[in-house]
Structures are given as structure tokens and as C-alpha cells.
Amino acid sequence: MSKKKVAAALIAIIGILAAGLTGCDDGSKDFTYSGNLDNIDQYSNVSSTITLPAGMTISSPYANVNWNTYGQYKSALHTHTTRSDGANTLAQMIEEKYRQDFDIVAITDHDIVNKSWTTGLGRLEEVRYNAMVAGTAPKIKLSGGFEDSPRGRGLLRLSDTNEQSRSEHINSFWADWNNASGATLANTIQTVGAGGISFINHIGRYSHRNAADPVVRIAVSNDPEQINKYAGLFMSNLSCVGLEIINRRDRETYSDRILWDNILKVTIPQGRNVWGFSTDDSHSSAPSENGNSYSMLLMSTLTEAEARAAMEQGRHYAVAKVSRLELGESFYGDGRFPPTIKSITVSEGNLTITTENITRIEWISDGVVIGSTTASSSTFDETKIGSYLRANLMGPGGIAFTQPFIVNKI
């Protein structure tokens, strides 16, 4: 970025911080909890309903979800093993994901198409794999051995998965192809899209190069050159369904929700939604390296066809224990109280979210926080509704992000 662009971006971010567009003007950056977390009754399961003005309608990615019958499937969509740069074998990684109640796992070693969990280096024994798939396998204990009872829920392996890493990294799914030296981000996405789908990983690694200063990170995420680069890729490649908005514990993705909003401001007026994903990007089977960041896929059945449809259609929401911009640098969610969406409905101009383990809901439109709901108060500025709405849902366990709802102005 040129010095002129940096200066312009820094001036812009000063205005953004003053206006509260990062969602931190009301103290939510210092969002923290104290007291006895064993007593969940001290936290409200906040719900929120907003009413659109006349002449506006909502297109919801959750429109076809039956919240009474669909399952919510905890998904690990970015996982490494000793086959690339991971510290533990494939079998060890899968055992930890199974222990932490993940329902869906994609093994995404760098530049290696995963074809099987029961062959090759560090494989799972086939009998154990089949029992995991059926849900009849017990979970391992951290102290050694196995639990006495079966887990009771199956495990789904996604096929032909890979972290394509020759250029900026993308995760590819259902694509039996591997990028070669010299590949670009654009041609990798295009080639994967011949039969598979993808999302872009940890964009902050490439956009702001992990700048130490948060102000610089935010400024880069507001840089038109970066925004147009990624918006153009999404507009040209429908098979690239989204981007990681949280990676690991949010070090590299600190300001990527801002970039996501900026991308949406370009693509949604052209009819293109872009989904947000949250991943552990786990390189170790250590419990602390798993279960921090994941996506909840909303599916009628635990099948690959349903998983692909959910990823393509935006039938999922992103969850994280750590979200440094929204929750503060020191916040770490309590895993006993995962942020959970119970239902999202659109009816007669009303958009309603019901939740569990949530104490605050913020509504964002075109990068601006335009409303918030807690147990004791609710505000919403309908005059600031732009091309889309999305919600951040915060509680003792961390944060959940809805996918964007397109606003149609008649």
C-alpha cells in the first residue's frame, strides 16, 4: 500500500473508531464475566426481534432450516496432521475431535488431497473408524483408556479435502486436485471450482502481514485495494463460498470481520453473499488447540451431501471462544456455555433470533453497529439499514456470528 493510501486509511479508521463501527464504542471490547459460572441462571438467553421499515424485505440463508428437526453439527473444517506440518498423527487428531464432540471433520494437510482416514501415515484402524462413523465408539479419556459408553453420535469425514498452499491458502473440499508450484490464488480457486468448493483462509496473514499495531490491521482491512481484490475473486468464483472470519485464537484474523463487512458492501448489492467460517486450524491434538473456533452446520441429516449444501447455502454460523476485536484481548470463553442459536425466523417484516448462553446481541449493517439487545435494553436504528444485516451474539462462552441477511429495498 502506498504512503498516501496508508494515510487515508488511518484517517478513515479514526472516524470509524469514533463512530463505533468496530462494535467497541459501548465497551464491548472489554466484554468480560465474573462471578460463579456454575450458576448459568445469572446469564440471560437473550432473544432479539427487529422490525424492518415498510418497503424492505429480508432474504435469509436460514429460510429453509427446520429448527425443530435439523441437527446442529459441530464442524472442524481446518485440521493438520504429521502428513504436513501437524504435530500429531491423523488418528490422534481424529480421536481428539471425536472426544470434543465434533460431528464433522475435514483433514486439510498442506497440498495433500485427503483420500482416506484408514490408510497411509498415522492412519486410524478401520474397526475404530467404522465405530466412530456409527457413533458406537466410546471417547478416549485424557487420563487414558476409553469411556464406558458409546458416544452415541456419528462422525462424518469430508472427502477430497486439502489446504491448497502454493499461493494464498484456501481450503478445498470435494476436489481431487492439488495446486502446483507457481499457482495463483485466482487459478487455484477456479480449478477447485470445476467440481469442488473452497473458502479463503486467514486473509489477515496476507493483507496486513500480521502487523503488530491493531490500528494498522484495521486500516488495511478498510483499504479499497484489498477490498476490491477479494470482492472480485468472490464475484468471479461462486464455488469459493466464503472466508475464515476467525482462525485459531484470532491472531491473524483480528480485523478480518471488518474486511468481511467491506467485501459484503461490494458483493451483496450485486446479489452475491459471502459466508463466514470459524476454524481451529489445529496443528496439535492438545485439548487447548481444539474446540476454540468452529462452524455449526445446520443439516437435516449427517451426510456429505447435506454438509456441502449447508456450506454452499450459508446454513451455518461461526462460533469462537476468542474474538479479540469484539470481546477484548484477554477474553477467553468458558466452554461449558457455548454460544448457541436456537432459531432464526423471518415473518411479516420481523427478523427474530432466539439463543442459548447469550447475554448480548449486536446488529451490524454495512459495517456499522446499528442496534443491540441485552436482558434490560434494546436499541435499533432502522435509518442505518444498508444492503445487509448480520448479528454478533456474545455470552460467557464467547461469540457466535450469523451469516448475512440480504436486505431487499422495494
Kindly describe this structure:
The chain is an alpha+beta fold. 23% of the residues lie in helices and 28% in strands. The protein has a single domain (3-34, 69-336), classed as TIM Barrel (Alpha-Beta Barrel). Strands 2, 3, 4, 7, 13, 14, 17, 18, 19, 20, 21 and 22 form a twelve-stranded mixed β-sheet that branches. The chain has a five-stranded mixed β-sheet with strand order 8-9-10-11-12, with helices on both faces. Strands 1-16-15 form a three-stranded antiparallel β-sheet, with no helix packed on it. A hairpin with a 5-residue loop joins strand 8 (162-164) and strand 9 (170-173). Helix 1 crosses helix 6 and helix 7 crosses helix 8. It is globular, with a radius of gyration of 21 Å. It starts with a helix and ends with a strand.
Which CATH class?
Answer: Alpha Beta
Major sheet details: 12 strands, mixed
CATH superfamily descriptor: Metal-dependent hydrolases
- Percent of residues in beta strands: 25-35%
CATH architecture label: Alpha-Beta Barrel
Which secondary-structure class do the elements indicate?
A: alpha+beta
Q: What is the fold named in CATH at topology level? A: TIM Barrel
Q: Helix amount, in percent?
A: 10-25%
Please count the beta strands (DSSP E, at least 2 residues each).
Answer: 22
Mean pLDDT metric: 90
Count of domains: 1
